[in-house]
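RETRY 2/3 - previous attempt timed out on the joint model. Re-submitting the same 268-residue input unchanged.
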Amino acid sequence: MPELAEVERSRRLWDAGRGAKVLEVVLRNRKSHVFRGTDLPSVARGITGQPLFGSEVVGKQMVFRFGKRGQRWLGLHLGMTGELRIEAPTYPFLKYDHLILRQSKRSLVFADTRQFGRVLFAETDTVPNWWAKLPPSILSKEFTRSAVAEFCYRRKGSPLKGLLLMQERFPGIGNWMADEILWRARLNPQRLAGSLSPAEVTALYRTTRNVCNKAMQIVGEDRDFPNTWLIHHRWTDGGKCPRCHTSLVRALISGRRTCWCPQCQPAR
DNA sequence: CCAATTGTTATTTA
DNA sequence: ATAAATAACAATTG
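RETRY 2/3 succeeded.
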């Protein structure tokens, strides 16, 4: 379930191998869709024998840097079903394990059944283009109310649900987080971005930051989301709004399954 | 066999 | 030219 917080959790998992050398790079399923456009020989050549230098995350994108100066960049995206795991050093592999980095004390595993994820690689002392062009994180200083307001205007014809899924402005937001944010901001997901009052734009901005902040905190402390969050109620039939206990409604909006409370989030 | 799936991107439509 | 909708990608599950 890779959205913002889960991606951070994954990064942290692999980061356990920081400082340790990669003894072997195992590439399985070389034809896999996750390697579309990836030059596999340079991945193997570039990482074998190199220490894990550090890792970063922006939205749903992760980068793991290798080498003494961190000049070998391995970009990972988990797509819809990707996951990172830590296994024993001699762990063999399962069917959908695509990339395994062997260290003396552990194996770093990247698996993805549906293969919408992606592996990128670059060897460069400067930041690779695919990393440099990422938008500012939602929890960074550059993510401001006015940036959200401008985006609402530019995408004025988009339903709010679709708006929040646009990674160019809301990196890391996925299906469940979008629903969570709109529910908390009391905004109907079908409302068009251009229809928001200034107060509603403020609410959208603040709630977005808030939900991201809380999600990161919860993952950091390795806790589960409280039962007062919509996420626990949105998938099951007959789910009730945790706030007012009205029956939740589900429909396809912006092509994505969406859940909301008709009482708290009126259509207008 | 059909529909659905916590994502992105190329193509089509308006 | 823009922006929004749709199809496609691949695999599994009910």
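The mean pLDDT of chain A is 95. Closing ticket.
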